[in-house]
Structure prediction request, 304 residues.
Amino acid sequence: MSTDTPSRIAVLKGGPSAEREVSLSSGHECAKALRDEGFDVIELDAGPDLAAVLQAEKPDVVFNALHGRWGEDGCVQGLLEWLGIPYTHSGVLASSLAMDKERTKAAYRVAGLPIVKSLLVPAEVARKEHPMEPPYVIKPYNEGSSVGIYFVHEAANGPAKLAQDMPETVMVEAFVPGRELTTTVMGERALSVTDILTDGWYDYDAKYKTGGSRHVVPADLPAPICEACMEYAVRAHQALGCRGISRTDYRWDESRGLDGLILLETNTQPGMTPTSLSPEQAEICGISFGALCRWLVEDASCNR
Prediction:
């Protein structure tokens, strides 16, 4: 891509998923940053007519700021491959694998990365009985942003009262006590480790509402834990076949040392909002938000 003439960038945002509002915020922030970097930017709220709109607008690159199903699971990536438009972040296969939490764990296992016991069960079963010994966590196996997560305590009187809009199949995962940590990978480089401090569960509100959580970056952790987070994040990025940026989340039970560090999931399109983790880590490394967005555009590709 020429650096002399600003290229035409279509920022995809919104969409039909449960994470629509987060995507609208991410898209708005990225579009503003790209305009400040000198690009010609159009913002598109992704709908059923997306293919026709893209063909009419003829962007040089699509900046994918969608989150959740359709935008982050390989669907829109497949559409962009079909149209032959270079796009940011991971491709079809990596996006699909990372959104499916069970297949993510399978890739982690092959790569020798530490995970905890989990299983897929019908939601109706999880409503009627304990699928495993408490404490455990129930979540959709194909959503992000802590959408639809239930924590069943050790002293719970009965199984979780799941909402009726939960998917027919859910993931049940052994609860890992400890601290919430996360590491962003940019290309093949791990940026930093963030320690996420909250008053309770790191849920949707803690992630996206102002004051919902406090981020300590770089995290004040023993060197072996920081080093492991950085190494594991790169290995997870590679195991899933990611490109662009990804962010791998952990729980760390400090009473168990390195054995207490467990991978939870890898996000192929980390949030790009004012409270998001990946832009904070980039900033710590001397990469401004605008420079991060520019790098993603310059890294965009198709057919890989």
About this structure: The CA atoms of residues 211 and 288 lie 22 Å apart. The longest strand covers residues 189-197. Residues 118-174 form one domain.
